[in-house]
Amino acid sequence: MSKYYDDALEFAKKYIAPYAEEMDAKAEFPKEVFKKLGEHGYMGLMVEEEYGGQGKGVQQNVEVCLAFAQYAPTVALCYMMHNNVMPKFYNASKEIKDKILPEIVKNGKFIAAAGSEPKGGNNSNSSETTYKVVGDKAIINGSKTLVTMGGNADYYSVVCTNEENNQVSWFIVPSDTPGITFDTNDWNGFGMRGNTSCSMYLKDVEVDLLYLIAHADTINKRDIQIGDNSFIMGIACANAGVTFGVCRNAIEHIKSRVYPDGKKMIDFDTIKLHVSKVYTLAQATKSLCLEAGRATDANEEDQDEKCVAARLMATEASMEAAKLGMRIGGGRAYNNKGSMTRWLRDSYAGQVMAPSVDALSLTLGKNITNKDIEIK
């Protein structure tokens, strides 16, 4: 593995692991973790080098998210949301880049994506949230739902529709802009509970047109593809991390478990079979995620299909691993001792994150049967 992965693992052990249980128990955003992410330069991973960032692609994003997710998938998911916005900046004006990107790189500021809506879900080509242009300002009105890091990010990438010509656009809206409110009581997630994915309301929110970074119909399609695949891979990595967390937790448990007659749990063949399966799932999901990230950066013809396959594999593998982890944990896990139930809940959370597993499975099936893609 690369230095990015190894360094991120060390960061996760030192700064993420100590907060993992607390952020899950309280369903609170890990503010201290994100402060450390900023201090260590992680917010600038996908920021262009011209603006002080590292200028890295989906491959490095995958490696970092994989490492973070092994200790707290919710951190990897939130971090991915920030990086997912970066490709849209490639189309933005130099003026807005000069204003925001140095804040991200030097001061650790981060961005959340506000795209999902109560009726239409997450659709970057359509939005019921609207804006109207008044002079050099845009007035935004509407609402968003399940905004990851809602109420905690420094900026929000808001998708909205021009009232006059129906053009869909993205604005970067500072969190302290008057008219923005969040319903933080709306969040009580089943798994990956540190996301604080809550509702966001925008009432006559006024921003300079300077903050308009892209239009859906004019943005570079390659940048959209990079952003979309980065998003899908972020969720894949979060679930892949579950398999590693289960494996690590299971091994710690069986090594310490000694029965009254002196027998050790680690000596039972059934337990070894379970651990073998979990380890295999972990390595398989990691390999597929890394390959999908590599294919995206290389702009290969089957990059989209590999990213979807990685997401599907990681989601199913995490649930299978967590199921086996509960068997290994036995009564201790059932009694909610240790972290196995957290990994179980985190694994099931990935089932419903948009795009859903069912929608992605159908898309993948259509693509590999209708497109002229070489299976290799």
Please tell me about this protein's structure.
The chain is an alpha+beta fold. The chain has three domains: 3-110, Orthogonal Bundle (Butyryl-Coa Dehydrogenase, subunit A, domain 1); 112-215, Butyryl-CoA Dehydrogenase, subunit A, domain 2 (Beta Barrel), CATH 2.40.110.10; 221-369, Butyryl-CoA Dehydrogenase, subunit A, domain 3, CATH 1.20.140. 52% of the residues lie in helices and 14% in strands. It is built from eleven helices and eight strands. The protein has helices spanning 3-16, 20-26, 31-39, 58-69, 73-89, 94-107, 221-256, 269-297, 303-334, 340-349, 357-370, and strands at residues 111-114, 130-134, 137-147, 155-162, 168-174, 180-183, 198-208, 212-215. Strands 1, 2, 3, 4, 5, 6, 7 and 8 form an eight-stranded mixed sheet that branches. The longest helix is centred in the middle third of the chain and has 36 residues, at 221-256. The two termini are 23 Å apart.
Write the layout of secondary structure elements.
Elements: H1 3-16, H2 20-26, H3 31-39, H4 58-69, H5 73-89, H6 94-107, E1 111-114, E2 130-134, E3 137-147, E4 155-162, E5 168-174, E6 180-183, E7 198-208, E8 212-215, H7 221-256, H8 269-297, H9 303-334, H10 340-349, H11 357-370
Parallel strand pairs: 1-4, 2-4
Antiparallel strand pairs: 2-3, 3-7, 4-5, 5-8, 6-7
Helix pairs in contact: 1-4, 4-5, 4-7, 4-8, 5-7, 7-8, 7-9, 7-10, 8-9, 9-10, 9-11
